[in-house]
Write a structure and sequence with these properties.
heterodimer, A: Rossmann fold, three-stranded antiparallel sheet, 5 helices, 8 strands, B: mainly alpha, 84% helix
């Protein structure tokens, strides 16, 4: 896996007229994982979007190396297409082969619904599909926004294992979740401490 | 390069197959319907229809350009496609440029084809029809570009769809003046100006649209 690094320094985030957090700093190196915890509305998703480069920080800097893989509440899969073809679109964009897609969908347990249009999938199945897309992308830096939402307990454990495996393979994971997330060596940071 | 081809393939599939973006079929039917309404409204006077017909085709084309606007970008933004493209380093400018090409392909040529039955309904002469077709070829890229810019600017607004239609009409007036004006002057200068405006609009669309999509994320 390519080298990856993530350094956040003195970060502040403003949404509308409110500053959600300020003075946030942390650094992650390859193989490390960090969970951002905090009640709803403290800016977990915003932090992830700033790190992904989708939002501009109000203050501070984000320094990152390595390709980004993002999973949030929107799966970014064409609703009317069968899941297999919707995933194949991203496969062609990301340059992954059919084999890796097959093993990824096996691992996330979506092989049985590959021919079902995305619009008929349940919340949990959509989340699994998004994780399948992430797995096929082979990105070094994973940004997961509430990855356990909608997943049943068995699949939640599998998701934690995915993160652990990714770290072991030299990747880097930033998880935003209000739910307990159990991965060996996982650090955690409470965003509420940085509220202004 | 393959990424661009892949994006174009997806956009075209969405616009043509089943008209999921309100794509190719709906504006064409609307265009023919408007052309069909005019003889009912102004009466079957062939002289009048022949004189006004070219202009009617242009107005119909302009109105048809409004139909696909709310489906052009909004679904992709809501479903997170633009975010996923962005984290992969695919610039919004590139996705918008591809979308513009796909939008024109699903809008311009079908409209030019539909101008044939419309011309028959309005009793246009062959040389008028020829000017109309050249005019549509010169003008529809501009209409598609204006439509895409407006779709990008209104993508985050709740009443975006209704606003988009209102915004398009005044912006498209110059295209209409020179495109339809070529019918009465019979000169090629009107067509050339229409084409020049279309080229300019197509050139700025990727940048304007890209900036608008990025701004919509902040909103």
């Amino acid at each position: 896996m390519e080298g990856c690094r993530l350094a956040v320094k003195d970060l502040a985030c403003r949404r509308g007229a409110r500053v959600l957090f300020r003075g946030l700093s942390f650094e992650l190196r390859a193989g490390e994982a960090l969970q951002v915890v905090g009640p709803n509305g403290t800016g977990k998703s915003s932090l992830l979007r700033i790190v992904a480069g989708l939002l501009r920080p109000f203050a501070g800097t984000v320094d990152r190396e390595g390709s980004i893989g993002l999973v949030d509440e929107r799966p970014a899969l064409d609703e009317h297409l069968p899941l297999g073809r919707a995933l194949a679109f991203w496969g062609r964009i990301d340059g992954g082969g059919f084999k890796s897609r097959e093993s990824a969908s096996d691992r996330l347990g979506v092989t049985g619904v590959l021919d079902v249009p995305v619009q008929y999938l349940s919340t949990g199945q959509r989340k699994r599909a998004a994780l399948t897309r992430l797995l096929c992308q082979q990105a070094a830096v994973w940004l997961l926004d509430e990855p356990l939402n909608g997943l049943d307990t068995g699949m939640a454990r599998e998701c934690e294992k995915l993160v652990a495996d990714h770290c072991r393979a030299g990747g880097l994971v930033l998880v935003a979740s209000h739910q307990p997330f159990e991965v060996p060596g996982l650090r955690s940071i409470a965003l509420a401490d940085f509220a202004s | 390069m393959s990424v661009v081809a892949e994006l174009l393939r997806r956009d075209l599939a969405q616009m043509f197959a089943g008209a999921r973006r309100g794509g190719a079929i709906l504006p064409v039917l609307f265009f023919v319907a408007v052309a069909m309404l005019f003889p009912f409204a102004v009466g079957p006077d062939p002289v009048l229809l022949t004189r006004a017909g070219g202009g009617i085709v242009w107005v119909a084309a302009l109105l048809a350009a409004i139909l696909p606007l709310d489906r052009l970008l909004a679904p992709d933004l809501e479903q997170g496609f633009f975010d996923q493209f962005a984290v992969r380093g695919i610039a919004e400018e590139a996705t918008v440029a591809v979308r513009l090409l796909a939008h024109w392909l699903s809008f311009g040529p079908p409209l030019m084809l539909a101008a044939l039955p419309a011309a028959a309904l309005l009793g246009l002469h062959a040389d008028t029809l020829r000017t109309v077709e050249w005019g549509l070829l010169a003008g529809t890229p501009g209409l598609a570009a204006i439509g895409l810019i407006i779709a990008a600017l209104t993508v985050g607004l709740r009443a975006g769809a209704a606003l988009a239609g209102l915004l398009l009409i005044p912006l498209a007036v110059p295209l209409l003046i020179f495109g339809a004006g070529a019918l009465s002057t019979g000169g090629q200068s009107g067509l050339a100006l229409t084409a020049a405006m279309s080229l300019l609009l197509c050139a700025i669309t990727p940048f304007a649209g890209g900036a608008a999509i990025r701004a919509a994320r902040d909103g």
